[in-house]
From TrEMBL:
<feature type="domain" description="O-methyltransferase C-terminal">
    <location>
        <begin position="126"/>
        <end position="313"/>
    </location>
</feature>
<dbReference type="GO" id="GO:0032259">
    <property type="term" value="P:methylation"/>
</dbReference>
<dbReference type="GO" id="GO:0008168">
    <property type="term" value="F:methyltransferase activity"/>
</dbReference>
<dbReference type="Pfam" id="PF08100">
    <property type="entry name" value="Dimerisation"/>
</dbReference>
<keyword id="KW-0949">S-adenosyl-L-methionine</keyword>
<dbReference type="InterPro" id="IPR001077">
    <property type="entry name" value="COMT_C"/>
</dbReference>
<dbReference type="InterPro" id="IPR012967">
    <property type="entry name" value="COMT_dimerisation"/>
</dbReference>
<dbReference type="InterPro" id="IPR036388">
    <property type="entry name" value="WH-like_DNA-bd_sf"/>
</dbReference>
<keyword id="KW-0489">Methyltransferase</keyword>
<dbReference type="InterPro" id="IPR036390">
    <property type="entry name" value="WH_DNA-bd_sf"/>
</dbReference>
<protein>
    <submittedName>
        <fullName>Methyltransferase</fullName>
    </submittedName>
</protein>
<dbReference type="InterPro" id="IPR029063">
    <property type="entry name" value="SAM-dependent_MTases_sf"/>
</dbReference>
<feature type="domain" description="O-methyltransferase dimerisation">
    <location>
        <begin position="13"/>
        <end position="77"/>
    </location>
</feature>
<dbReference type="InterPro" id="IPR016461">
    <property type="entry name" value="COMT-like"/>
</dbReference>
<keyword id="KW-0808">Transferase</keyword>
<dbReference type="Pfam" id="PF00891">
    <property type="entry name" value="Methyltransf_2"/>
</dbReference>
C-alpha cells in the first residue's frame, strides 16, 4: 500500500536538498577525503562558522551523507566516491550545483558567517513583519495549523487530561491545539494567548468548531505580559524561535503561571539525543539559524534539563507524530 505524502513531506524534502547542496558548495565531502575530522577542523577547512556547525554536520549525518564516530566526521562510501572534487572521474558536485542554480545561496552565507543574511535582526523583527497585515497573519497561522494538527491530535489523546480543568496555549495562532483537546474533553476550558492581530482568526476558527463558550483569546506579548494561569500550559512550536536566554525566560514564566500540581507541555520537532537520526529536527534548526537569528532547535534531553532547572519534576518525553515529540514536566 502506498502512503500518501503530505505538503510537509515536500517541504522537508526541499530543505533537505538545500542542506545537501550547501555541503556540496562548501566542499565538505572534499575536506573529509583524506581522514575524519572534528567539527572544529572541518570548520577550518570549509569556512563554516562555529555557531551553526554542529546542527549542519549532524544534519548531514542524519541524512546519511556523513558518518560520525565519537567527535569525528567522515564521508560515507558513496559521498566519498561521488562528491570529492579530487575524484574527477566520478565527481557529481558540479552537476548538482549547475542544475539547482542558487538554490542554497542564503544557507551557504549563513553557514559561512554564522549570521542570518539580509541583516535580519531576530525573531522580534520576523513577528513584527508577519503580524503587520491581516493577510500575512492569516497565512502564517494557517500554515501553523497545518503543521500542528497531527501533534495536536496526539496530545489530545495521549496526555492525562482527566486530571485537569484548564489549559493555556501560549503562541496559539488559530487555536488548533486547544480546539482538538476541547473537542475530546468536554470538562475542559481553555485560553489561547497570542499577539493582538491573531484575535480575529482565532475567534473565527474557534467559533467554526462550536467552542466559543469554552475557549477564549487573551492578547499579549509573552515576554512583556504574564502568561495566563492554568492547570496545563502548552508551548508548541515556540521555544525553538528564541535564543537560550529567552527559552529560559519563557519556561520560568510558565512555571510561575501554573497552578500547583500543574503541567507544562513543550512540543515541536525535537532533535534525537544522539543527534544523528532526526534529520527533520536538525534541518529545522538550520532553518531557525537562517530565518530567526538566535533561534535553534534542541534535543528532548536539553528540554528536560531546562525544565528541571526551573523547578519542574518528573519530566518525560513522548513521541507524537512524524518527527515531533513532547516533553512534559510537573510543578
Amino acid at each position: 500500500m502506498t502512503v500518501p505524502r503530505t505538503t510537509t513531506d515536500f517541504m522537508w524534502s526541499w530543505w533537505k536538498m538545500k542542506t545537501f547542496l550547501s555541503a556540496v558548495e562548501l566542499r565538505v565531502f572534499t575536506a573529509l577525503a583524506e581522514r575524519p575530522l572534528t567539527a572544529e577542523e572541518l570548520c577550518d577547512r570549509t569556512g563554516v562558522h562555529s555557531r551553526p556547525a554542529a546542527d549542519f554536520y549532524d544534519a548531514l549525518v542524519a541524512l546519511d551523507l556523513l558518518r560520525r564516530d565519537g567527535d569525528r566526521y567522515a564521508t560515507t562510501e558513496e559521498t566519498g566516491e561521488f562528491l570529492d572534487e579530487d575524484k574527477r572521474h566520478s565527481y557529481l558536485g558540479d552537476h548538482f550545483r549547475v542544475a539547482m542554480g542558487g538554490f542554497a545561496d542564503e544557507m551557504v552565507e549563513m553557514l559561512r558567517t554564522g549570521q542570518s543574511p539580509s541583516g535580519r535582526r531576530g525573531p522580534g523583527e520576523f513577528y513584527e513583519k508577519t503580524y503587520a497585515t491581516d493577510d500575512s497573519t492569516r497565512r502564517f497561522h494557517r500554515a501553523m495549523t497545518a503543521m500542528s494538527l497531527a501533534s495536536a491530535d496526539a496530545i489530545a489523546t495521549g496526555f492525562p487530561w482527566d486530571r485537569y480543568r484548564t489549559l493555556a496555549d501560549i503562541g496559539c495562532a488559530e487555536g488548533a491545539l486547544p480546539v482538538r483537546v476541547l473537542e475530546r474533553h468536554p470538562h475542559l476550558s481553555a485560553v489561547g494567548m497570542d499577539l493582538p492581530p491573531a484575535r480575529e482568526g482565532f475567534e473565527e476558527y474557534v467559533a467554526a468548531h462550536g467552542l466559543a463558550d469554552r475557549l477564549r483569546f487573551q492578547p499579549g506579548d509573552f515576554f512583556q505580559d504574564p502568561m495566563p494561569s492554568a492547570d496545563v500550559i502548552v508551548l508548541g512550536h515556540v521555544l525553538h524561535n528564541w535564543d537560550l536566554e529567552d527559552k529560559h525566560t519563557l519556561l520560568k514564566k510558565a512555571h510561575e503561571a501554573l497552578a500547583p500540581g500543574g503541567a507544562v507541555v513543550v512540543y515541536e520537532t525535537m532533535i534525537d539525543d544522539e543527534r544523528q537520526d532526526n534529520a527533520v529536527g536538525l534541518v529545522l534548526s538550520l532553518m531557525m539559524h537562517l530565518a530567526l537569528p538566535g533561534g535553534f532547535d534542541y534535543t528532548s534531553g536539553d528540554c528536560r534539563g531546562w525544565l528541571e532547572q526551573h523547578g519542574f519534576r518528573d519530566t518525560y518525553v513522548q513521541h507524537l507524530s512524524g518527527a515531533e515529540s513532547m516533553v512534559v514536566g510537573f510543578k
